[in-house]
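Per reviewer request, we include the raw input and output of the structure prediction for the construct analysed in the revised manuscript.
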Amino acid sequence: MTQVEILIDLNNSKLNERDREILRQALEARKEADIFIREDKYVEAMERTVVALRKLKEFKEYGNPEFKTLFIALLFDLAEIHFCLKNYKQSEKEVDVLFKVLDNLVKVDEDRYASYHILAMELSTRILRSRKKALDLLVKQQITNGSLFEKVNSGVVAATDKLVDSLSTTAQLLAATGDINESLKFYAEAIKYSKKRTGRVTLKEVKMTVEMAEVMMRLKSLRPRAKRLLDAILPHAVALKADNLHQDIIALLDVIDSNNESDSTWRVFLHKITSAAKSKLKKKQNTQNVDTVEH
């Protein structure tokens, strides 16, 4: 993925020093996210993007064009990151929020926001196609699972590794289609067979456990369980010197802590932004009506 390009005028005369500093810090977090994106470290990029969005919540004037532009860019970043993580359901939610904000902004300032609206439509189409592809692949994967289970039960030792990989792939596809609970069952089964084969925790089990925790995080009720799972697997990642997985675990724990903020607070934040956009549109329409009457 590539972050959408934006131009933020930090010297805008309508910005006070406090709001200017908020934008500066949010932009810095976005730059850090971009570094991770270029390295395909999407979990770390997600954590930095969440930090940037939390920083924007401190902004006072939601109608400010620099604020709105950066907010839109961060929503795009988050939607694209979740798309890369194959969390299509969450990506879809973020695109829906994008459309709610952009629908009004395009009417107020088409030159600045129309291109973002087109990008949101393109992303929405990509999500739908990817979810359909995941569903198609899932059918084929289930057939493969059945065949491998038969071989393992018949005592074919070499089939166990293939079964573990197949169960893990099935879990990933189920998560991509939005079936979280079923996905977790397949992850648990894959980890069980993998541990049974090796008799110890290997890099493979750590990787699958981290993936499983990331899927758990998609349901608010399972986030405490995901945190416990990550805390439990962290020492194994350290012992195996799996630096990338270690970083992923720390980033996911940070995201969980960030998500502990009440959902109602986030909804209020979004409502204020969409209300500000609607207010701007209504003001423009009233001005146009007055001009029409005068002429």
